[in-house]
Amino acid sequence: MNQKHNSIIRFDLHIHSKASAYKEKGGIVDNSTKENIHILLSKLNENNVSLFSITDHNRFDFDFYLTASSILAQLDNDYPNVKTILPGIEFDVKFEEDMGKCHIIAIFNPVNNEDKLKHIETVIQNNLLSDENGFYSKSEFEDILIKIGIDTILIASQHKDINDHSGRNRSLSDTTTNVEEIIKIGYIDALEFQKPKVEGILINNLKGLLSTVTLLSGSDCHDWKYYPYHDEKNQNKSFYHSKAKILPSFKGLLMAVTSPDTRFNCRENTNNYLLNGFTIRDQRINFVNGINAIIGENGSGKTTLLELINGNVSASYIKKIIGENELKIIGEIDPIKIKYIKQGQIIKKFNDRTLFSSDEENNFKELNKENFVNMYSEYAENLYNCIKLSIDKKQKIATLSQCSITYENDSDNSSYYISINCPRDFSDVRNQHEYHYEEINEINNKIINLLKQDYYKIYKNEITIILNELNKIILDIKNKLEKINNESKIKNIIHNCIKDYSRKIKSISSAKDQENEENKLKKQKFIDSIIEAIKLSVEDCKWPNEPKIIDGFSKNQKRGFNFIRKAIYNSVSMLDEFYSKMFLIKFKNISDLKKITTWKEFVEAVKYCSSSSEIKLKWEENFNKFITEAVKTDEYITDGTDQRIGSTLGEMSLSYYKYFTEDDNEWNILIVDQPEDNISNNNINNKLINYFNSIRNEKQLIFVTHNPLLVVNLDVDNVIFVRKENEKLSITDGCIEYEETNILELIAQNMDGGKETIEKRLKVYGKKY
What we know:
The protein is an alpha/beta fold.
């Protein structure tokens, strides 16, 4: 067989011939003879059956098997769809003495050895059942298999619920009450059904088992003229052939029954973008539209092949290998269709905290920290103003006793020029409406932007009504804002004019006039000090309320994951942290700050402050430190059940592969250099393999690996073995069951743990690779 790579084929392992006549009545198999083999082969060809077996009741016709094999071996035979016949027998076996018997189909490895195949017939003849109701006991059956001494696949008939032990169907459940136990221990490899409804029953029966068991259909054809039906009168119209992705060989079937989830009843890969392969000198190496594993020793050139595939050939050592081995990619593909994960890339992205970022995209949404910052900025400003007011109040009242003025009799005499006093400067007037005007305008603009989004078009009328009402508020606040701004502007104009006038008359006034003017200013300052002290004494200091607790997190749901970014201030009070950053330890709350009545006490309260001139600077520095710490974020990921994913490199690597194998057509080809890095064998077997299996029918995967689990247990579709011979690359490829080059032997010999991994998979009945 020259076929290297498996494909989805139909098979039928339950067909009878004239050799079953001793158990059949009415001459139902009389025409199913070696002389009429062309009838069967024609029917198989018509039904696209690639692999079949003649499994007669407790008989093996070596001559018939040899004849059929010889016909199919001819290159130009008339049955191109039919590839292989496997030797087989349908045994009648009784497991438990007080129960009925069942049918077990044994499919043997043809081994390309006529003497061994002839030996099957000899063993059966030496243990022949002549009574149509005869059977073998379980121990006799096992003894026959041991005497035959050939690798065997066992398929038990099960044509009903496994809990039905009525004894009427020659099913496995008719001969034992421990069907589940028989399956768990691996005594049989598969269950055969004939009607689709029975398949559904069996799937339901077995869904709770930890061990998987293959379910396959068999025609049980007796009269070949009516294939795939039993005979002319007994026609199962609902019958359909089982399919498997295998080479049409015993080893292909063995791979299928030991990995049913990846082999049986699968569908063709739907991926339309794939890499075809490459050439090395005059040899063509094909990639399959499925899973391709590149294996070989360190330094054999595996990574170079991945770099070549991705067009990364600028490095001199890669150019050298490509040139010396005449490596060329077959065909071209849009690079955007490829996702390439280089060796060490996950570690780097993990350390950079960009593991789940793709190009310019970051799956963690930005937080809107503005509300928190504004809230604490306002709190800090109000707190500062209240402390300052307390100090000013104390100082103004305390300094009243020091205020005095000497009354001059002639100080009120009129001067030659008109005297005008305007000591206040209005340029520092705080307009309380300014912040609120900016705030409500920002809200208005955000609402306007909503109308530009398609999602909100259905709410256009409602949003327009909101905007109209909002504009009324904006206009009112604007009028108040402009009124105060205009008043301040006019006052400052008047103030500047008075200043200019005062400077002008001062230069032309007499000494007595200037003296009188100074006395008037002293008098006005004295009066202003008293008024200001009175005002401060009665002014109520509105100490700020504690800032409310607000949310500070974002959640982005994507591909079954939740990407969560959470700020330190999220859902907790930050007031204690604020006081810790702003003040020394003895100032823990507002009550402590209310006791501050001097600038010296204020200096002693503020962290890192040594003089009154530094208070404002240190206040701002401390506040910025507080804000910087409070808005720091923690990023983490949860799965669909909101369970937090572990943060270790291995756990994040697993999640990374799960994430990128659940995408939405962002790529068609996944290329990975050593996906097993940082992941335990247990997680490779239980998780990573499942992630890759989930996309094997939609994507093309190509990876380099040193881990046999990712070859044998993943059941890859194509193995590419790379080695160096005389400093040149030598490459062999084929699916796992390919026998012209024994791929399993290459895995066993060239991968650490490869032999043990293969033996664990093929452990039943001492099957060999």
